[in-house]
Structure formats: C-alpha cells, structure tokens
Amino acid sequence: MVKKRACVFISGKGTNLENLIKNSRNYNFPINIKLVITNNSKAEGLKIAKKNSIAFKIIDIKKRSFENEIIKNLKIYDISLICLAGYMQIISKKFLNRYGKDIINIHPSLLPKYKGLNTFSRVIKNRDKKTGCSVHHVNDKLDGGKIIIQKSFEVNFDDKENDLKIKTQKLEYLAFPEAIIELYRYN
Ligand code: GRF
C-alpha cells in the first residue's frame, strides 16, 4: 500500500498528533505524517514532532503572506491530506480553493451541535444527556463540512467541563484514526 503523505496542523498540546503518529506506524494505516504546521511557536505539540523526527514549520499568521508560506510547504512535502488537530485558526475559502485537496478536522462535540469554542460548557448548560466528538471534512463554513465519523458517550449528572474533556479526548483518539481509514477505504 502506498501511504498518503499527510500534514497535521496544531496550535496546542498535540495529543491527537501523537496518537496519529502512533497509528501511522502501523503498516496498514493509510497515511504517514510528513509535516506539522503550527501558528503557535510555543505549541507543546512541537516537542512531539521533534521527538518523532517529523519536519515542522511555525507560521507567523500576522504576515500577509502566511497562506503562501503554508501552500509552499505543502507542495515541498507533497502533502495530499491535511488533518486539523486543535488548530485554532480558521481556514479561509481562498486557502481551501488553492490547496484543493482534502482537509479534515476533529471537533469536540456531536456536530451540528456546538460549532466553535466552549463545547463542554454548553453541553453542561443545556443538560445534554449525550456528547462526543466528530471528524469532518473542512469547508468554508465553521465546523460545517460533511461528517466522516462520530463517537459519543453518556454525560453523568455530576460531570464537570474537565470530565467531559477527558472523556471526549479518549474518544477522539479512536475517532480520528478510524475516520482516516474510512477516508481511504476504497483507494
Ligand atoms: C482536541 O480536543 C480537539 O477536539 C480540539 O482541540 C483539541 C486538541 O487537543 N479541536 P490536542 O492538541 O490534540 O491535545
């Protein structure tokens, strides 16, 4: 199997990045991670990239040309899948059109519920019985692309935001790799 060359975009801890790297070591997993891109020079996830000898680029999004810089690197590394894993920056319509290949994102809610930030506090406020995570294609609507996979769990009456975060992330580590396998099931 010829593995696709993927780039993971991060802004923070990078636990999903680490999990994807682990999965990619499996012979049958459809991608290899060749590049990590971040908008945050202090992102902890950069240590994970370094530890695993994966190339990384820190992009200064205050520069007008920052999207050119990203596109240039995606070309250099011949990337055909972008995985957004805690990347706290909106992907512009222009970028989507210029890149023209698949971008997927992991989101900590059962979309279409709770797009955007602060998903866990909204689950608690609305006393939802269920929550979880979604992996979806990225389009020009915030957290609005087609869903590839979702995983859910039952919310306990005394769950706090941090409990929901821990339980959601545990499911994310299953959902993201499964979504990638699903993506390439037929090719
Ligand atoms: C994840 O929980 C994901 O749902 C959200 O950002 C978080 C990133 O965590 N989009 P990490 O950087 O992978 O640890």
Report a brief summary of the structure.
With 187 residues, the protein is α/β, with parallel strands linked by helices. Helices cover 35% and strands 24% of the residues. Helix 2 links the parallel strand 2 (31-38) and strand 3 (55-58).
Shape: globular
Largest sheet: spatial strand order:
3-2-1-4-5-6-7
Q: Give the C-alpha Rg.
A: 16 Å
Kindly state the mean pLDDT as a whole number? 97
Give the tally of β-strands. 7
User: Tell me about the biggest sheet?
Assistant: 7 strands, mixed
Instruction: State the secondary-structure class.
Output: alpha/beta
Give the percentage of residues in beta strands. Answer: 15-25%
**N→C terminal distance:** 9 Å
- The helical percent reads 25-40%
Q: Could you state the order of secondary-structure elements as H and E?
A: EHEHEHEHEHEEH
Q: Which runs of at least 5 residues are low in confidence (pLDDT < 50)?
A: none
Helical stretch count?
A: 6
Small molecules bound = 5-O-phosphono-beta-D-ribofuranosylamine
